[in-house]
Every structure is written in C-alpha cells, then in structure tokens.
Design brief:
The chain is of the alpha+beta class. The chain is built from 20 helices and 26 strands. Strand 6 and strand 7 form a beta hairpin.
Length: 724
C-alpha cells in the first residue's frame, strides 16, 4: 500500500469509498457485496451480476470509479468483499470457522506447532461477523490456491473465490473487523510458505474440496447433472450430457437403418457430435488464450472420451441399441418439433437426435401422426380477426380489482414490512370461502397451496391469530402448506412440485385456485436475481403451475434499495399484478400500493394496520394480524411542509456549529449522528423520506458534506444554501 493511503486512511471515520480505495491500493480486487436484507440466504456474494468476469485481472480505474467514486453506484454501500486469486495479485484467504467447528482450530494450531512457528504468522487477519477468523496470504509463484470447503470448518478462498471484508455488516448485526495490529494498511500480506501450500493441497485431498491444479473455480447449481455457468454452457455433468447425446444419436441411426454404418460414417458422426458438444460445454480450467476444446481434452472430457463412447455404443449395436430402438416412442402431449428429422445415410449431419437410454427425443417418425391428429394448422400460429378478438372471454377476477384468475403476480416489500402476514391472510380468505378480503370481493374459493420454507415455525400462530381476529374456523379449509425447500431452477424439483399439487387435486377433486410462493428468493438458491436467464426459469416454473392447474400464482418478494421489485425486469414484465407493501419497522400503520394491475386501474393506495392478536392458548401467545384500515390523518412517509423543512435545516446547522455534525453515512448511527434517524425521532418522519430529503438537498447545494474537525477528521452535514 502506498504511504499516502496509510497516512490518510482512518478506519474510525472512513466511508465506504475510502475503505474501497484502501483495499484497491493494497492490490485487492474489492467489489460491492450484498447485504442480508437484500438476499437473506445468499448475501455473502458480490452485488454484481457478472462478477466472474473479474477473476483474472484488476478492474479498470473507470469501472472502480463507477462503483466507488463520489457519485458511484455503491459509494454508500458498507458491505464489500474481495475476489481472491489472480485478480488480487494471487492473494488467497484461509477461513477458519472457529465458532462452529473445533476441528478448524486443531488443524491450524497443529500446523503452527508442527512447523515450529511458536505463534501466528504476521499477516493481515480479520474476525468475521459470525466469529470466525480469516487470514490473508500471498500465493508463491507456480502454485494456484484452490477454492474449496472442507468438512472440518476450514475453507480456502483461492482462485475465483470471494470473501467479505470490513466494514461489512454480518446478518447477526456484528461488523467484520481487522484484528488489532494485523490490519492490511499497517502491514504487507505475507508470502505463504511452501509447507503451508503443501498442507492445503493435502487438506483438499483428505477432506474434499476443489483442486489446487485447477486454475479456475466453477459456479455449481443445485442440479449437478446439468449445471451451467452464467453464459449457459454446461460445466458440471458434462460426461452424462455426452453419454445422452451419443446414445440418442446411435439409437436414431438404428431406427433409420438397422445396418451398422461403416467406419467413415462413424467418424463423421464423431465430428458432428463433438462440434455440438464443444459448443454446449465449457472447460472448468481457465487458461487465457487456450481453446476450449484443448482444455476439455486436458480435463479428460474432450474428443478422446467421446470417441470411446461412440465406439462402445456401436459395439452394442445388435443387442442393447436394437432393444431401445425397437421400443415404442413415449406418448406426446404436444406436437413434436417441426421437420421430419430423417437423413439419408452418409451425410453425417444430425438434426433430430433420437430416443436413447436416457430419454432424449428422436421423434422423427411421430410428425406424420401428429399432423393427422391436429391437421394442417400444426405448422402455423392461430390468427384472430377483429370479430374473433371481440369474442375472447373477459378476465375473471379472483379478488376484485386486484388479481385475476390464472395470473402471475407479486406481493413485495422490505423485510419486516408485513408482506407474509398479508399474503397468508389473503390465502386463508380464499381457501375458507370468505366473501371479501380487505373490502374487495372474492369471486371464487377453493384449494390454496402455500409454499413457505421460512418462518414455518410460527405459521400455526399466524393462522390461529387470523382465525381469532375474524372469528373464522379454518380446520376444514382446503389450505395446504409445503414447507420443504424447493428449487424452482431445478426441473426435477418443479416436476416434483407439480406431482405434489396433482396429489392434492386427486384428493380434493378440485384444481387449486391459488399458489403462493413465500419467498421468491428462497426458491432460487444460488441464482442471480439480476440475470434475466435465471429469473426466466422462475417465471417458467410459475407458468407451468398456471397452465396445468389454471391457478393464480403469487410470489412474495423483496424490494430493491430504490423501493422497486428486486431483481430482473422480467418480474415486472411477467407480473399481472404488483402489490407494494410499505411499513416502517415499529410503525403500526402501513400501505399497500397497487403498482400494477393489468386488468384494472392501478396506482391506488390502501392503508393497513398490524395488530397484535391473541392465538387463544393458555400461554397467552400472540401473533400479528394485518387488516385494512382507514387512511391515517398524516402520511409519515410524505415530504413535510416547508416550515418543517426549515426547522430540520436549523437543527442541522446547530449541530454543525457545536462541533457534532449530523452525518448521512449509515456507519455514524452508532455515534448517534445519523441524520435520517435523528430526523425520524425529532420530527416523526420515516427514515426513507428523511434520507431522500438529505440526498436532494446535497444535490441542490442546500447542504454540503465537509470536514468539521481536522484533528479528529470528523465529517458531517453543513447548511450551505436555502430552500426559500
């Protein structure tokens, strides 16, 4: 780190931008990170959609300034982290979960004792918000540190890994902190001794994890047989994909002609299949400048393996292949792919695949039957003229002016705003056959499926509080809770969910009226909510439920920092209704705002009240219940009048004059100087509105952010203009 950075950096008064510049001066690839409020289960990750592109070299200055410049996108985001490995000068991190697994301490202390260290190595070390220890090292030349997670509480963040850094806040409310005397601005990152590198390699081999020989990590999904990277190319399950592709093609060849093709045609098949395979897959080895097919071959997943599989398949031509080729094709519920799929022997080109051992569709000889059943219109889309358009059925309201039947929508809001209570109340009202929900008519009742893998423990209290508040008994209501974790990105999980719902249909004799998914983030493990391709999978799963069961699907989701529906714009576009829930923590009154109602007027606002309701047990247990209420006399979230604004500015000026200026930085909250919090307490204005006022006045020159005391480097807000 430069001497200038050391002299200027003060952790007690540094803002996120200064922290980020300090790390960058140290040669680390610092990037903005998620917060627990943004992603409750997957928050220890960069807040960037394509951060994997930053694994190999330090981000350009222009990119860094876009993140952490004075007007940067993340200039006020405390949570940040580093991408380890090549982009950070080959710096890696040893993560010891001392608070969870005593084996981690045994491993580390044993190494130090074995190699006669007599104490810890002098290198930067931090204490995580959860209580663990993370130690930074510089990898020696010629050794690539692995990124792996072991079973003894020791994780290695090597090439392409990611680790949170101070001043990030943990979900427990405890910040990440550098250990005293071991801060990166006071010492160099130590070069890892060779014995430590050897011990890490042995650790990975013994307890499992990644390999130190691999130059790049992989991002794995929850579907190992079909795990893809951010560009849609298969990185896990490649051999299985190759097997399916080979078997499907060979079986299709047999269907066309039961005589085994000559070697020259087999070679053509090899080249054709490898071109398809190499396009669809990606090597897990990262080596810039080396073609993908060479890296695949180096991994043992290249053309040599494909040649062996093709040879083995043709050796089974007269036995196994024949049996599968002669088996009837599975029935189809929808028209097959267009085109005959037939090829003359000898051209070596594939256009249909086949139906192989693993169920790939060949389907080439089904088209004629499908055309006979569906007629000539199979190859064209339906066309409606004006008269046909006028005969289309009107949308049918499930809940009047809010949600239509067979629709997709979202109830969304910040954590703790009460959106789950509202969703549960709405679902129970539909299932119990009530006439109204929040003064809006319910036109259809029936079975309701509620998917919730979070907050299930108090679900019974929420249900009983709803019963007590409305005087309704729901014991016989067709309300069904699914509490298992479901991955909507996994086709197998979606199929299992559909079978589960079908079981309910078989038992009740009715299709579900509505399906609730609480929350959306919990059914998308490992997904990037900002990536269209990831969120499209969620929409596709919801559409499957709608199309099969004609149910209205409602996702319970979170808001972004800007107060919009979090994630890709796919959500906004696909949603037939978007209901925003806003309520400040600790406040009794909140608002439901119709952000989007596809079939009716939107933009309206409904006030609601969170009341504490007894659940009727002998312990006196209570739970919250959300009910509609009249509009309160004053909206605390509204911009105050000019007289109140003048008083706020006078208070800011007085604080500056006495040497205790208010701050717009969230980290000043512990010092009691956070402006938005003070304004909320003194003037009864919600923090979000107060924060917007401060930012607006800063932009318009009414306020400025200056250093009040050069000795302590205390910075704060100063009144430099007027609103009159």
């Amino acid at each position: 780190m430069s001497a200038k950075s050391v002299q200027q950096f003060d952790p007690d008064f540094a803002d996120p931008t200064e922290w980020a510049r300090m790390y960058r001066d140290a040669g680390l690839q610092v990037v903005p990170a998620m917060t627990p409020s943004e992603n409750r289960t997957q928050w220890k990750r960069p807040a960037l959609p394509k951060w994997r592109a930053l694994e190999h070299e330090l981000a350009p200055d222009l990119t860094f300034e876009r993140w952490y410049g004075e007007q940067g996108e993340h200039a006020r985001r405390n949570n940040m982290g580093m991408i380890t490995g090549q982009c950070s000068g080959n710096v890696f991190m040893i993560d010891l979960d001392l608070h969870k697994n005593p084996a981690a301490a045994t491993w580390w202390d044993g190494l130090l004792a074995l190699h006669n260290m007599g104490g810890d190595i002098e290198t930067p070390r931090q204490t995580t918000g959860g209580g663990g220890k993370q130690i930074l090292f510089q990898a020696p030349a010629g050794w690539t540190p692995p990124t792996c997670k072991t079973s003894i509480g020791v994780d290695i963040r090597g090439q392409g890994g990611f680790a949170m850094l101070p001043p990030s806040m943990h979900e427990s409310g405890t910040p990440y902190k550098w250990d005293a005397g071991l801060e990166p601005w006071d010492m160099e990152i130590s070069l890892a001794p060779q014995w430590l590198c050897d011990e890490i390699d042995a650790l990975v081999k013994t307890y499992g994890g990644g390999s130190a020989t691999s130059a790049g990590p992989t991002e794995r999904t929850q579907t190992p047989e079909m795990a893809k990277n951010e560009f849609g190319r298969i990185i896990d399950g490649r051999e299985e994909y190759m097997t399916r592709m080979v078997w499907g093609r060979v079986v299709d060849e047999y269907r066309q002609c039961p005589i085994k093709p000559p070697q020259v045609e087999q070679d053509d098949i090899l080249r054709t299949l490898f071109a398809k395979y190499e396009t669809a897959t990606k090597s897990r080895i990262v080596e810039r400048g080396t073609p993908n097919h060479i890296l695949l071959e180096r991994e043992g997943r290249g053309i040599s393996l494909l040649r062996q599989k093709i040879k083995h398949a043709f050796e089974q031509w007269d036995e196994k292949v024949r049996r599968h080729a002669e088996a009837p094709l599975p029935p189809r519920e929808a028209p097959p792919s267009f085109g005959s799929g037939k090829q003359d022997r000898g051209n070596g080109e594939e256009d249909g695949g086949g139906t192989g051992e693993n169920g790939e569709d060949g389907g080439s000889d089904v088209n004629s039957d499908a055309e006979a059943e569906f007629g000539a219109d199979l190859n064209v889309f339906e066309i409606l003229d004006v008269k046909g358009i006028k005969t289309l059925p009107d949308p049918t309201w499930l809940v009047e002016t809010i949600m239509i039947e067979n629709a997709l929508g979202f109830i969304f809001g910040a954590p703790g705003c009460g959106k789950s209570f509202i969703a549960i109340g709405q679902a129970l009202s539909i299932a119990c056959g009530l006439d109204h929900w929040w003064n809006r008519k319910i036109n259809r009742s029936g079975p309701v499926i509620y998917i919730s893998s979070e907050g299930v423990g108090d679900m019974k209290f929420r249900l009983r509080a709803w019963e007590m508040a409305l005087g309704v008994k729901a014991d016989e209501a067709p309300f069904y809770l699914i509490r298992q974790s479901i991955n909507f990105m996994d086709e197998k999980d979606v199929e299992k969910l559909i079978r589960t719902v079908q079981t309910i249909v078989d038992q009740t004799g009715e299709f579900p009226v509505a399906v609730y998914v609480d929350t959306v983030s919990r059914v998308l493990p490992g997904a990037d909510e900002n990536l269209q391709k990831d969120m499209t999978l969620f929409i596709r799963a919801c559409d499957a439920l709608r199309e099969i069961f004609s149910a209205t699907v409602t996702g319970v989701h979170h808001t972004s920092r800007a107060g919009n529906l979090r994630g890709s714009s796919v959500f906004d576009g696909a949603g037939d209704f978007l209901l925003l829930i806003e309520r400040e923590q600790g406040e009794k009154i909140g608002y439901l705002t119709a952000r989007k109602i596809k079939a009716a007027q939107d933009g309206w606002k409904q006030a609601f009240e969170m009341i504490e309701q007894s659940v009727g047990d002998i312990k006196g247990t209570t739970s919250l219940f959300a009910r509609a209420c009249d509009e309160p006399t004053r909206d605390k979230g509204a911009w105050p009048d000019k007289a109140t604004c003048r008083k706020i500015l006078e208070a800011i000026g007085s604080a500056w004059n006495i040497g205790k200026p208010w701050s717009s930085m969230p980290q000043s909250r512990k010092q009691g100087r956070y402006a938005s919090s003070i304004i909320k307490q003194q003037f009864d204005i919600v923090e979000k509105t107060a924060d917007l006022m401060i930012q607006t006045w800063l932009q318009n020159g009414v306020l400025s952010y200056e250093m009040c005391d050069r000795n302590t480097k205390m910075q704060g807000l100063r009144v430099t203009g007027s609103i009159d």
